[in-house]
Amino acid sequence: MSLTRRDLLVGSAALAAGAAVSSPFFLPKYHFDRRPKRSRVAVLRAEQYSQQLNQILAEGLRLFPLDVRGKMVVLKPNLVDYLPGSAINTHPTLVLAAAEAFRRLGAKSVAVAEGPGHQRDTQLVLSESGYQESLRGEKLRFVDLNRDELMRTPLRAGYTGMKELWLPRTVLEADFVVSMPKIKTHHWSGVTLAMKNMFGIVPGTRVYANSVEVRAIECTMENDCDEIRNSVAS
Question: Which pLDDT score is estimated for 205?
Answer without folding.
Answer: 57
